[in-house]
Here is the input.
Amino acid sequence: MDPSAQLDLVDTPDKRAELIRRFAGTYATSADSGERLLELRADGTFHYQEFGTGITRTHNRTDVYAFAYRHGTPTLLIRANGLGLIEIRDDKNLICRMTVFTRLP
Here is the structure.
């Protein structure tokens, strides 16, 4: 079953604008889990980057994101094309691809 089928997208412009103001910003992982960067932009797009080491290639992805609730719950998520679901832990921490991202100041 498609996991996104169990989501209720945030579809009101006011609520979307509030969530973008609250969560737009740059998030990064700790060096322990590999260096990665996730930027949630105010225009509804994201930029994701995994930094390679040595001769390893750096991976970049840019696409759109949307806020959603897990169906029937107050659990807020971000659905990002190409990255899947991003869990919002709190105002400063996200979980993307089983890794914690912390908001940069």
Q: What stands out?
A: The mean pLDDT is 89. The first strand starts at residue 7 and ends at 9. The chain is about 10% helix and 45% strand. The radius of gyration is 14 Å.
